[in-house]
Amino acid sequence: MTELAAVIDISAELQMVDRAVLERFESRSVLLNAASQYLLRSGGKRMRASLTLLAARLLSAGGKQPDLGRMLNIATAIEMIHAASLVHDDLVDDADVRRGRPTVHNKWGGNVALMVGDYLFALAAEQMAAASDPRIIKSFARGVVRICEAELSPVTDVVPLECALDQYFAKIGGKTAALFECAAESGMIVGGGDDEQVMVARQFGYEIGLAFQIIDDILDFTGDEHTLGKPAGHDLQEGTITLPVIYAVEMGAGDIVREAAQAIEPGPELVAAAVAEVRRICATKRAFTEAERLVHAAIERLSIFPDSPAKDGLVELAELVLRRKM
Amino acid sequence: MTELAAVIDISAELQMVDRAVLERFESRSVLLNAASQYLLRSGGKRMRASLTLLAARLLSAGGKQPDLGRMLNIATAIEMIHAASLVHDDLVDDADVRRGRPTVHNKWGGNVALMVGDYLFALAAEQMAAASDPRIIKSFARGVVRICEAELSPVTDVVPLECALDQYFAKIGGKTAALFECAAESGMIVGGGDDEQVMVARQFGYEIGLAFQIIDDILDFTGDEHTLGKPAGHDLQEGTITLPVIYAVEMGAGDIVREAAQAIEPGPELVAAAVAEVRRICATKRAFTEAERLVHAAIERLSIFPDSPAKDGLVELAELVLRRKM
Fold first, then answer.
1. Is B112 on the interface with A (CB under 8 A)?
2. Are A28 and A163 in contact (CB under 8 A)?
3. Of A158, A288, A308, B58, which is most buried by a Cβ count within 10 Å?
4. For chain A, how many structural domains are there in total?
5. Which of A160-164, A263-267, B34-38, B297-301 has the lowest mean pLDDT?
6. Cross-chain CB nearest to A148 (options B91, B119, B130)
7. Residue B128 in contact with partner chain A when CB distance is under 8 A
8. How far apart are CA B287 and CA B293, in angstroms?
9. B91 in contact with A at a CB cutoff of 8 Å?
10. Interface contact flag, A132 B129, Cβ < 8 Å
């Protein structure tokens, strides 16, 4: 996130968020503290916290700054919910590795992963309570509900196209975009936005959240184990159908792609061949174009807000989503 | 809970809570709705909701009644958190059966159980947000944190006595009493109590919560498959050390009890022999005496409140805890 410093410097606040997410652990359970710290120290770009901090400042150009404590509470809560959903997501997927390191359930077992997630949800609820606005708590609760729904709503097949796309966007809308939506929405609420401004912030968050996940899904085809922390084609291996695969089939890719997508447990050769075919037919480029479209639509929405460093920061953040390589 | 009707009739409100917990499910995920409804329909005595509804009325004798909507929001949230913690607890314990019916993860798999729990936590947070009091949300968040801590804090051995008792009360204090505490505390907050009254309500909830769990642990020795929905000695079988076992060892029970408590996977014969020995030496009676002591201490605390049907109801509720047979 250092690129953001060029237009607006929120690094001090982000450090405060980092400290807050690590210092909130005051549990009497050694295991809970250790596993939570491990989880929250394992990197992450604090994209969601940045979104909150910038959205909160959108209306304060030249005027009163929003309350720092409330902004930090929400940004911290967002990062905790994000971490909680990752640890439960890894448990559902039985993933061994995240960002190149062993997952919590791989290291400490499923029960610790289960409780660490619940614990972080509860800590996040406490943080939000301190923000003292029922709209914010409602926003987060709906966000978590949508994450849960998405977790249980797979993309069932690559065809028919309309159905596959509907399922895909419903899935990533919950899995990823819902929390970006909350981050932007709750930031704008703290920043004193009216109903329309809050709605626009939410849509901005939603669209860059979708783009963020599309890029993630593209990187699973174009990246390698070094940058991804897991081998390319991991999603296909796990039976997860993403946008590049859906587009590849629609663009007339070889049967191998459909075969890999429909297989119960595709072997590594089948996956490697399907990954190569998805790349060959440039389905990842088409997916990238869709992500670009979403980012531009999101930036367009910001026109209702006065020009400010925070607005420039949000534009930068949106463009960063497209540039990320891991 | 029908016995309560003699002193104060909260059956209409409890029916509203029942409806609310079943009607809040408006998820687009068929699985989430089905599993949540299954979970919340599977009985339960709504003890925690009753505690909230009665505590909320403790100060309203002859005066203004607390807001019905806010009381119901909190009572509903409490029951949702209770259900969420049960479904995650069953997942941690890999329990096949609860109240004589297959558990959610047994019926739909671990991933559904994981998400149903998260979903219910989120719905509960939303309910609480509607109650619009940060103290209440804080109370619930601390409650969930303590449930998580307790889930990962086993009683490691039956000796030394002091250590075993400390571990046992820490465990059940989180596992069960924390939510009773929240229920009473948040009811009192809605009822307009001052800081001291809120504290007393919390302690009342804590003590009857401890007693509730002790009785539960006694029933695991004195009940049978018909009343428990699981065979007697189930806790020992699962490696869970409870108060009757700790007392039995301290009262000089045969080595068989200690052996069963320390075994990694005790066989059914060993468990049956240990259960018989715990009964023979009357360790369950001693545990019952401890539960009685806690209930009487809890009732004693109510003396700071004016006499009222709600107070009589809480006394009844506390005594019911000692009388329950399943």
1. yes
2. no
3. B58
4. 1
5. B34-38
6. B119
7. yes
8. 10
9. yes
10. no
Take residue B26 and report the two structure tokens written for it: 């408006």
CA dist A117 and B228 (Å) reads 30
Tokens of A96: 């061994």
User: How sure is the predictor about B5, in pLDDT bands with cuts at 50, 70 and 90?
Assistant: low
CA distance A131 to chain B (A): 9
Report the chain B residue with the minimal C-alpha distance to residue A88: B114
* Helix (H/G/I), strand (E/B), else coil: A97: strand
Identity of residue A52: T
Residue B279 forms contact with A (CB below 8 Å): no
B114 in reach of chain A (CB within 8 A):
yes
Strands (DSSP E) along A7-121, which ranges? 97-98, 101-102
- The closest CB to that of A114, out of B27, B114, B140, belongs to B114
Residues A322, A295: contact at Cβ < 8 Å? Answer: yes
| Rg of chain B, C-alpha, whole Å | 20
What are the φ and ψ backbone dihedral angles of B308, each rounded to 5 degrees? -165, 165
Flag whether residue A154 sits within 8 Å of chain B, measured between CB atoms.
no
CATH number, domain with residue A111? 1.10.600.10
| % helix, strand, coil for chain B, step of 5 | 75, 0, 25
Contact yes or no for A123 and B141 at CB 8 A: yes
Tabulate helix, strand, coil % of chain A (nearest 5): 75, 0, 25
A315: containing domain: 2-323
User: Rounded to whole angstroms, how far apart are CA atoms A75 and B301?
Assistant: 41
Q: Chain B partners of A153 at a C-beta cutoff of 8 Å?
A: 28-29
From chain B, pick out residues whose CB is under 8 angstroms from the CB of A144.
118-119, 121-122, 125
* Planar angle of CA B56, B57, B63, nearest 5 degrees: 130
CB proximity list for A269: less than 8 A, separation 6 or greater:
none
Residue closest to A151 by CA, chosen among A89, A215, A223, A238 = A89
Interface of A with B in 209-238 (CB under 8 A): none
State pTM to two decimals.
0.88
Q: Report pLDDT digits (tens) over A78-111.
A: 999 999 999 998 888 888 888 778 899 889 888 8
Of A306, A71, A78, give the one whose Cα is nearest residue A190: A71
> Which ipTM did the prediction report?
0.86
Dist CA A203 CA A79 (whole Å): 20
Closest C-alpha to B305, from B39, B59, B57: B59
Backbone angles phi, psi at A159, to 5 degrees: -130, 155
User: Is the distance from CB of B198 to CB of B185 less than 8 angstroms?
Assistant: yes
| Distance in Å, alpha carbon of B160 to nearest chain A alpha carbon | 21
Distance between CA atoms of residues B135 and B138, nearest Å = 5
Distance from CA of A239 to the nearest CA of B (A): 15
| CB of A115 closer than 8 Å to CB of A246 | no
Burial class (CB in 10 A: 0-12, 13-18, 19+), B269: exposed
pLDDT (mean) for A149-165: 92
Cα–Cα nearest to B138, from A187, A33, A123: A123
Q: Give pLDDT, residue B137.
A: 83
